Amino acid sequence: MEKIEILSQNEINLIIKESFEINSFNAGVDEALKMIVQKVTKILGVDLCSVILVNRERFGSDKIASQGLSKNFSDFLLEIFFKKKFVDDHFASKKALVVNDISKTQKLQKKIIKGFQEEGIGAFIGIPMIIDNNIIGLIMIYANKPQLFFARQIYSLSILASQAAIAIHNNFLYEKLKKEKLKLEVIQDSIEDGIIVFDAEGKILSYNKAAKKLLGFKENYYGAKRSDIISSPEEYFNYGFTIDFKIQGTFQKVLRTKKSKSCLVMIKCRKEEKFLQTLMSPIIKNEEVISVISSFRDVTSMEKQKNEIVIQRDKWEAIFKNSVDGIMVAYFDNNEILTINPSLEKMLGYEEKDIIGKNYHDILGYKTDNRGKCKNCPIKRTLKKNSSTNKHVEDLLVRRSGERFWAEFAATVIKESFNKRSMIVLTIRDITNERQIDQTKKDFISIVSHELRTPLTAVKGFLSMIIKGDVGPLEPKQLHFLNRVYQSNERMVNLVEDLLIINRLDTHKLTFKLESTDFSQVLSEVIDESTLKGLSKQIILTTNIAESLPMFVTDADRLRQVLFNLIDNAIKYSEPNTRVIITARKKLNHIKVTVADSGVGIAKDDMGKLFNKFSRISNSLSIKGGGSGLGLYITKGIIKAQGGDIWAESVPGKGTKFSFTLPINFCLLNNNNKKKEKL
Amino acid sequence: MKKNKIFIVEDDALLSEMYQEKLEMAGFKVDVAFSGKEALDKLKDGFEPDLILLDILMPDVNGFEVLKEMKREPRLRAVPVIMLTNLGESKIDMNKELSYSLGVRDYLIKSKHTPDAVVEKIRQVIV
């Protein structure tokens, strides 16, 4: 029945051409099957064809592509091939199975024959597709009626089957590869670090999205040379992009040592500086570096923070090293010294290395108990109230030589963070010289004032005798002039007295003779003394004293001095024919006294310096009024020393009101007094 | 009428002269000493004034020491004393109690009292 015919040259050419197309096809297994069906039907001039993949282990599932056949028949074919027995029975020799008449064949089982007949098939050829000596599938062509197949048809089909097998295999590999590649790409692109793979020559093989973003790739740079990127960046990167040369050196090192190397590179992209932490790792095959994977991580913000920290550290270090004041840092909990600066080394006479780790109390001369605690240490005492105190404390400290010296110091606590222990920072200033100067100044004022008193007393005494006529009568003009001399001398006497009081105020040596005092009594004494002076300017003194004003404990002489100063000022700065009103009230826990005049008032600019030492305000009356500029300073000092307060309100041209308070806790109410007396 | 004898103990010659002049003008008989030691010598020699004007700060023996010495002598214990000083008030306050316990009748700050005022005080004490 079989007829053998030789293939014509045209047929061979067609087969070669189509085989080549099959072979170079590259769109996945499913598409390849469809394409093979098309080619087979075209080349062999048949209408019915199917290509079936039967190697489940290899392809994961059976696949079929058919032409001119029903879906039922395709399913039927898959079913019989699934049983494997069909392939084993009929294709063990890996040769074509040719059935010229289904109804008469002895080769097939009845059930199978029935399936073919139901589709209306009379004859078929099945040719196995073989890869590595394994059948991966079959190409089947069919005829509706029994017929003899030509040898050239079988031959052509064999050639196509072998090409189809390769094509399917390749497409399968391609699909597999594509999946792998996709997986890799997803991984690469989801990495936030920029990744570039170079070959050993330095050509770019691939890069991920992050690298593109990080390095500002504009186009496709596959194949670009690393050296090109570095030497002529404009060509490959956005305008303005530069990268430093460290990267080239690192690349060479990786090639040379075959080990991973890292470096920090700085790039400039659109005038923006970026810092990239770069790691280059070699990929080694047969002991040769075949490519280099480099990852770039943007550490700009970290790097900037680091720089900030370095700058800050340098700044503080400079302050620490060059500060004129001594600075010590110690642990807060056990008082162990961590560091001291050169100024403190000099001040204390220790070298830093000698005292690191020692208890600073011991070094500064504070006694500690056996647990290293110092009960009365003023440093910790100030800190207890406020953990970061700016309160300066003065105390005697001790040098290494044992010499004690006056120091002013302030402490600050740096609270613990990130498991670091709390630290105490102590700034210490040697105030020995200041103390000496201050003492000398105070001594000087004290001595000079005392020494001035005696000659001034003599001038005052002799003058008073002359003026009184003790040594004979004086011409009116002589008397007038000598009165002027006497007045000048009195001013000098008062100035010396004021200086002495200030000296005592400043040295906290002003003593107060506290006694139960009747305010009204003191006030009336002062008014008696001042009335004459007031009347000489037609100024009337008016009082407004609350009747319930209690007896209170104060220094009556100092109170007299305060009232005299304020009333005297009020008279001095009042225009004639006005009133000076003195008011006293008990307010909550203090007594409040005001002295108000209708005088020239005080300019806003002068208000701030009113209570300063030697401050003289300028107005039409102050020039005539004279005065040392110490009165209000002393007044304020006396009030403040007794826990009171003093202030002024003024409207220029309308008058001034001075108010002061003295605390009631010095006040003894009459009732309480009586009770105490009874007890 | 017998003149009252005032003993001025004052180391400053100017002030001493001033008080002497004024007191003599006011009708007192005056004797002076320029130091605590000189004063004590004169007193121990038998000089018995009616009142002593006593300075506190003096180079050798100060006013308080003079007072203490005087109080040891029964003969001098009753002589009235007025302290004259230019010491700071706080120092006076510290010693006031002591001096009053030693029989001081008054306490005058030199710079605040004219010679007239001093005469007035003396008259208040011995008349």
- Quaternary status: heterodimer
Total count of strands of chain A: 23
Radius of gyration of chain A: 56 Å
How far is the N terminus from the C terminus of chain A? 154 Å
Fraction of residues in helix of chain B: 40-55%
Report on the biggest sheet of chain A: 6 strands, antiparallel
Uncertain ranges of chain B: none
Dominant shape of chain A: rod-shaped
With helices defined by DSSP (H or I, 4 residues minimum), what is the helix count of chain B? 5
Strand content of chain A: 15-25%
Query: Which pair of chains forms the biggest interface, and how many residues does each contribute?
Result: A-B, 24 and 20 residues
Explain how this protein is built.
The complex is a heterodimer of chains A (679) and B (127). By secondary structure, chain A is of the alpha+beta class. Chain A has a 6-stranded antiparallel sheet with strand order 7-6-11-10-9-8. Chain A has a 5-stranded antiparallel sheet with strand order 2-1-5-4-3, with helices on both faces. Chain A has a 5-stranded antiparallel sheet with strand order 13-12-16-15-14. With 127 residues, chain B is an alpha/beta fold. Chain B contains 5 helices and 5 strands, in the order βαβαβαβαβα. Chain B has helices at residues 13-25, 36-44, 63-72, 89-101, 115-126; strands at residues 5-9, 29-33, 51-55, 81-85, 104-109. In chain B, strand 4 (81-85), helix 4 (89-101) and strand 5 form a beta-alpha-beta unit. Chain B starts with a strand and ends with a helix. Classes of the chains: A alpha+beta (679), B alpha/beta (127). The A-B interface holds A 446, 450, 453-458, 460-462, 464-465, 468, 470, 493, 496-497, 500, 504, 509-511, 513 and B 12, 14-15, 18-19, 21-22, 25, 86-90, 93, 110-112, 114-116.
Key features of this structure:
heterodimer; A: 679 residues; alpha+beta; 5-stranded antiparallel sheet; 23 strands; rod-shaped; disordered C terminus; B: 127 residues; alpha/beta; 5-stranded parallel sheet; 20% strand
